[in-house]
Write a structure and sequence with these properties.
This protein has 173 residues and is an alpha+beta fold. It has helices at residues 20-27, 30-35, 44-62, 107-121, 137-145, and strands spanning 5-6, 10-14, 66-71, 77-84, 92-98, 127-133, 149-154, 163-169. The protein has one domain (5-126): Aminopeptidase, CATH 3.40.630.30. The protein has an 8-stranded mixed sheet. It is globular and about 35 Å long.
C-alpha cells in the first residue's frame, strides 16, 4: 500500500505495529533519549501504541513518514529514517536514528540519502529541514554530507533546548 525503498544494502519500509519490539529498543537507547528525547516508551505495548498514534496517521495523511531500516543480507532491523511533519517546525523534517552497534557504518547516510531522494523526486517535497542538538556532532556531519546547511536555530513547542536548524531545497539538490 505504501512505498518501500531499497539501497545497495538496505530496505526501508514504513514502520508498522509489528515493529513494536524494535521501536521499544531503539527509543530506549541512551543516544535516542539524549539526542531526540524520552518518549516515555516503557513497554513494547507503549511502542505499538506510539506507532498507531504518532507514526501511522502521518503515513496515511501524506503517504510517507517513518521507515524501519532493514539490512538486506540478514533482515536485521538497524534503525529508522523518515520524513516528518513535526509540530512546531515549518515544512518537512528528515530524521534518523540507529541502534548503537550499527552507527558509523554508513547506514545512516545510505538510508537518509534514499529518503531525501524520494522526498524530492517521488513525494514532491520542495524543501527539507532537519533539527539536531548542538552537541550532536555525528548528526550534524551526516546532515552536511546529505547537502543540508545550517539555516539558524529553533526551539520546539514544550521544550527549552535551542536546536540547530538545517535546510535543503529541491533546487539545491
Amino acid at each position: 500500500m505504501y512505498q518501500t525503498f531499497e539501497t545497495n544494502r538496505l530496505f526501508l519500509r514504513p514502520t508498522s505495529p509489528e515493529d513494536g519490539a524494535f521501536v521499544y529498543e531503539l527509543m530506549n537507547t541512551p543516544k535516542w533519549i539524549e539526542n531526540i528525547g524520552d518518549r516515555n516508551i516503557q513497554t513494547i505495548e507503549d511502542a505499538v501504541a506510539y506507532i498507531h498514534k504518532r507514526m501511522l496517521p502521518q503515513l496515511e495523511r501524506l503517504g510517507y513518514g517513518n521507515y524501519t531500516v532493514i539490512r538486506k543480507e540478514d533482515g536485521v532491523k538497524l534503525g529508522s529514517c523518515g520524513l516528518y511533519d513535526r509540530e512546531g517546525l515549518e515544512g518537512i523534517d528528515i530524521g534518523f536514528a540507529f541502534l548503537p552497534e550499527y552507527e558509523g557504518k554508513g547506514y545512516g547516510f545510505e538510508a537518509a540519502n534514499r529518503i531525501k531522494d524520494a522526498a524530492f523526486n517521488e513525494f514532491g517535497v520542495l524543501e527539507i529541514n532537519a533539527i539536531t542538538a548542538k552537541h550532536n556532532i555525528p548528526s550534524q556531519k551526516l546532515l552536511e554530507k546529505l547537502g543540508l546547511t545550517v539555516a539558524g536555530t529553533t526551539i520546539l513547542p514544550n521544550d527549552d533546548e535551542e536546536l540547530l536548524l538545517y535546510n535543503i531545497k529541491v533546487s539545491d539538490f
